[in-house]
Structure formats: structure tokens, C-alpha cells
# Entry
Amino acid sequence: MTQRQVQLRLGFGALLAAVFLVVYAIPAWVSSPSNVGNIILSPLFWPYALAGFTGLAGLGLVFSGLRLEDTGAAVNARSDDPTAAWLRLAGMAVIMGLTMIALPRLGMVLTSMLIFAATAFLVRTRHPVTALVCAVIIPLVLYAFFAHVAGVAIPQGNILRLP
Amino acid sequence: MSFLDSIAAGLSLVGNIESFLALFMGVAIGVIGGAIPGMSATMAVALTLPFTFAMQPITGILLLLGVYKGGIFGGSIPAILIKTPGTPASSATILDGYPMAEKGEAGRALGMALWASCTADVISNLSLILFAGWLASFALSFGPPEFFTLILFSLTIIAGVSGESLLRGALSALLGLLLATIGLDLVYGTNRFTFGDPNMMGGLNFIAVLIGLFAIPEILAMVWHPTAHVGTARSLGKNWVSFADYRRSFKSIVRGSFIGVFLGSIPGIGAAPSAFLSYSEARRTSKNKENFGKGEVEGVAASEAGNNGVAGATLIPLLALGVPGDVITAIIIGAFMIHGLQPGPMMFILNVDIIYGLFIGLIVSSVFLFLIGTVAIRGFKYVADIPKRILIPAVLVLCIYGVFAVNNNIFDVGVMFVMGWVGFMMVRYHIPAAPFLIAFILGPLLEDNFRQSMLMSGSDPSILVRGPITWFFWAMTLLTIVAIVRAGVRAVKGTSALSPKVKD
# Structure
């Protein structure tokens, strides 16, 4: 991705977002009392103003992107193995998704132990035993602090119940 | 209340073991967090924030300020020893610090970095104490139109100087402002982008958004490239900094400290530009200018004084006006809000004990920084040896616990994950995250002051230019835009002029 591509993609993205906000999102998801006579005081005014400025910023980005010369130089350093990098990212997305499902069911401590181990192996740790030990100890220490010092009701789940 | 009464009130609040222990711990956490490549002072402050929920307001805020102060210095350790700045503010320290390490003078460079940091820290803290109260008393006369123009100016300058281009900064700020509209309307209480979900009605949780933006993208970056941040630390060498070195660099340290104070007190500029400006001024005026870039101890002193001079001064707009000067103070404002405190001019009247307690704590933090920094320089090897691929999952788990603890709500954990991906995309597309976060915090304040102004004037927009204060901020906003656009146009022209030569 070159500097020019970044600028153009951001510009078109901002323009699309502005159009989506004005045409669909604000009318559908922002409600205003019918007795508000003055648009400036309406709850709709601020979102519409921001959508307008986003559109302007998008136009500016497209305009400046078109003026940039395409040098062919990539703006981000390439990963050694892009396919593996994308797969790891997808794996991380799955871990995050599963965390949201597991938190109310398994509780925070057990879920944290599992995602600690999963993330450590996802990033190919060279210390697997240390990772497993930390995966057990760190969630327990954090539980002890937040539940007993800070007084937070940490979700316990159905399998593991801690004092 | 007289000055002495205020100091006595502050002392009665912080004059206990708990407060000083929190400050000491904060500086230690900050130095370690800043010294770990791949972490940063910002991330260290963000991750410490959840631990302050259970503390007294003053103790929690002192802990965070300690992390901030320690983190800025800690960043210089890997900058000098492994040529990787621990925080962006330490980038200028590499220029002379690493060449010194290559010559076997890493210990001398680190010692000078510490001495310069502590000196600049003291100057910056004293400036804060001198100017914050004066600015707050001036700001007491601000009404909604003045606050609206002040926040607009702050957002403009933050958007303009945070990243590579004004437009990307502006886009980032606009996205932050849009995100801040989620929730119930401030005046009518109607729904805005809540999708009927009660979790969204109070707006998105600030802590979830900030941890998502500043910690999760680091985890994703590590997942993307697990072997990044791997470097070999240089040995400290036998040379240590001498008082003669300090005396020779003293002028550059003081100049750098004042540059830091000046730039730090303007919202949005931050420590990195200050460090580079201080370094370039030292190089311009030094007798040893030909040694700069080759391992000149005065260069290390100037850049460290520049970045640490900012640390106290960024609190001037935060405490006096309620406007965060940079991302870290934006996080610290979160700690104030969690404890029901609203920084700004009224805090100097209603919570003067907390203000003076903070001032006392900040002065003491410079002493703690000196003590902890001396130990940290020698102990860096152990910090550098922490396996990053175990640290990152630990950070992830800490983020989950911390975000959940704010409201006991799993929904906030989901918000953090989503914001993490947004933050990662922003990094890939080189959109600065600072304007996003600061706009997200200031968004409701900006809208509220705008609508209050309109209510006051019967929707007459001329109230926004009602007096000298608003004229001043409008003029500053316009000047900022013109200056940044001109700099951008010059940069584009410079690139175009260079590219044929590159092709040749």
C-alpha cells in the first residue's frame, strides 16, 4: 500500500461514510422530538454537521491523494510471511469472539487462562512451560486483586467457583 | 484561601504513606513500562488506570502521574541501549545516545539522560505550579462560547500536529466526535445510534475505548509480526556521567526544559516535537556542534530535557481548563472523572486540596524518578529479557479484567475488542489515534457548550464571536490551519521535486 493509495482509500472511505450517515444512518438511528422548531438545537444537528465535515475531509483526502505522485514505496513494513500473518490475525479475531461467548459461561478466570494460553501459542512463544504457568497464575492474581481488594464482582461461571 | 493554607490542605491530603507509596510504585511501573520495547508510557498509564478504581482519588491520580513521569524517562533506556525508543518521545535520544552506547559509553549516556530528565521534570513541575492557578483564575470568566472556541482550537491543533497530515488528523478527530454522539441526547434525552440497546444509552465507556485504542493494537501488531522488538542490549560500559558533563550541558538542559514547558502547555503538541526542537537548538548553539549525531552527551541531555519538560506542563491545560494536553493526560482525565472530579477552573475553588496535593506529589516524583532511574539503568537487562510473547497475552488478560471492572459489564469488553481492531486499522492507515481519543473525550463538552451558546443567544451564531477571548481562539484556530496547510503543501512540493531525482 503506497502513500497515494492510503490517502485515496481514506478519502473514498470518508466520503462513503458521510453519504451513508446523511442518507441512512442519521434519519434511521437518531430520533428528535417533533416539536423542536430550530434545527440548530435539534439532536440531529450535531451528527449532520459532523457527517458534513467528514465528507469535506474525504474530499480533501481524495484531492490531495490525486496530487501525490505514486512512488511505489510501501508505507508499512512487510511481514516475513504475509499469509501466516493474516492467519494469525484471523486466529486472534476468533479468540476475541470466543472470549465474548465464554466469559458469561466459563467465568472470567477460566476464560482468561484459556485465552492467555491460546494467544501465547498463537504468537509462537519460545517458552511454552512458562506460558502455561503464567496462564494459570496471572488470571488468579488479577482475580484476587479485583475481587478482594477492588471489590469487583468478577463473573465466576458454572465450572470454576473461587472464594 | 491563602497560598500557605492551600499548601497545608494539600499536605494534609498527601502526607501519608499510602500516597507516597502509590507515587513510588507509579514511577517504578512507568520506568519499567517505558523501558520495555513494544510497550509505551501511554499503554502503561492505560493499563494502570483500572487499578486506581479502588483507591482514594488523590492516591489513584498520583499513581498515574508517577507512571507518566517514569514512562517518559524509561523510554530513553531502550533508545540508548538497543536503538529502539520505548516511547515516541525518546526518538531524539537515539541520535546521540546510541552512538555513545556503540562507543562503550552507554552508562554515561543513561546517567546524563536521568540527570537531564530530573532537572527538566523539576522545572516543568514548578512551571505547572506557577501558571496553572493563574490560568484557572483567568478561565473562571469563560462562558460556553469561550469554552466552545477553546475546545475547537485544541482539537484543530491536536488534529494538525499529531500525525503526518492535517486531513488524516481531522478525519481521526471527526470519527472520535461521531463516536461521542452515541447515547442519549444531552438536551432532549432522545436516542442517538443506540440501536435500542440499553448498554449504548450512556454512550460508549471511555476506558473501554482508550484501552481498545492504545493497548489492543499493540497486541494485534505483535500477532501480525511476533519477532518485532527483538534487539540486543549494549553493555553499560565503564564510563559514568560526571558533574563536569552536567555543568557543560546545563544550558542546553534548561533551554530544553523551557521548550518542553512551552510546547507542553499548548494542547496537542506533545513530547516528541519538543525533544527534537530542544536537540536542534542545542546543536545550533553548542561549541561541540560537529560531535552531534556521533555520540555527544549534550545531545542526549537536550533531547531528554525537551521530552521531560513537557511532562508537568501538559497538566497546565488539563488542570486549569479541563482540556487534556496529550493522550496520557487524556487518560488521566479519565481517572478524575471516575472519581467524580471535573478538572477545570472550578477545581481550583472546589478541590483546592487535591490540586495542591498533586503539586506536592509531583515535586516528590522528581526525587523518586532519580532514585528509581538509577536502579533501572542497571537493571534494564532483566527488563529486556522479559519474553514479549508472554508479556502480550498477559496484557490482553489485564485489559479484559481492567475494562470489565469499570462497570461490571461484559459489553465493555466487546467495545474494547472492536476499538482494538479500529485502532489497528488506524495504525495500518497511518491515522493518528490521539485526535480520535481526545475528540471522543471533548466531543460532549464541545457539543454541550455549542448548544448552550445557541440557547443563550436564541440561536444567533454571532455569540461565538462575542468578545476578545473568542476572537483570540478563532484567530489561533485559523492561524493553526493556515500554518499546517502551508507546511503540508511545502512537503508535497518537496516530495514532487525530489521524486524525479529518485527515479534517475
